[in-house]
Amino acid sequence: MDAKVLSYFESWLNQHEIVDVECATPDMAGAVCGKTLQVADFLSAVKHGGLYLPESVFGMTIDGDFILGDVLHDTEPDLLFKPDPDTLRPVPWYKDATALVLGDFHHHDGKPVEYSPRRALQRVLEHYARDGWQAVLAPEFEFYFVSKPQDFESELEAPVGRAGLTRETLHPYGLDAVDRFDDLFIALYDACETQRLEVGTLTQEAGPAQFEVNFNHGGALEAADRAFLFKRSARRIGLDHGLVATFMAKPYKGHYGSAMHIHQNILDRTTGKNLFADESGDTKLLLSHVAGLQKYLPQVMPMFAPYPNSYRRFARYLSSPINTHWGRDNRSVGLRIPVSAPDSRRVENRVPGADVNPYLAIAASLACGYLGMKEGLEPDAPLDGRSAYESPALELPTSYWDALEAMQKCEPMREILGKEFVTLYTNIKGYEFEQFDMIITPWEREHLLLSV
What torsion do the CA atoms of 276, 282, 283, 289 make, to the nearest 10 degrees? Predict the structure, then answer.
């Protein structure tokens, strides 16, 4: 480890009187994995390169099983964790002063672990850098607060607001709905500020106790880090207030799903100029970026819709896209160009669900746009002033098996995201889909048991 980096860690941890350090990484699902060390042990590990996790952490399925073989080894060898000093931040909810640091993994020969989620995004950004481009992003998260469930068999219940009613939480864009949970949101904003997550606006969405937070624009890797840590923070602060924060794409039947919209644009790395607009309007580069999303987005749907539940969200007229049409100031399309000045012209990818791993959704979204720019693609005509819900064309995959097959066969994505990553990720998704298909649902028993 570089002496300056070690000195920075020592100084920062001492200044903040830190007792414990969480060394964290996202697994394929976007869950927080890692180890907690006392400060002396952490500094020793940084100095001597002695902080390890088994590679199987990246083969874990959503139910805690492991997918080994093909890419990962049955012997579960260790990978070296290298902390990223730019990600060091306090964790506000522990009794003892605690810090968290994110990091990247390397093999014993020093080569990066190509199948880790953070590395998948870094690979895409390296492609951008070679072309003199820099990606800028701002995620938006929709999510629900729900009452703590007694079990996993029962329907979820909306929380009771200050007036003692659940219905009071159902008022789109209502300021009073947010105010009825002000203690919770004050605590959440405080936690986000302490961790430098740069959360901007907060709004009530269309579902009961469904909210949306917008993040400030920033570099793509930084944006993914902040989104990753926000999900953890929302869950923790929710539990502290007796509620559960859920990022399921479709937690309620009959109500709106939750998305992670990705606002993205490209800057010239030298001048900092936004390359998506000039004096005459939208540039050819923006149009090619949109066209790349149109062409390739259906081929990486497992990174935007990673679970069977994800596909329940794509319902006509429920503020969720059902195709890859694009348009200006049009929320019915999958790819929206918001009203904006030339220096902030951007594309909003409205397809990803809130259940995504932020690193992977951002990597996939940028990879689609990158391929469109490199191939010089042209999009179809924009749907300006028309509803995309009325168009059957350019439909998204509605079956998770079809989506998985498309991703497995997409060679350009295997190249840009990494062959090891695509193989491992699709193996994990295939296992999870198989496990889901083995479940007999209450609906089947209720309607088929005695009637067919």
Answer: 60
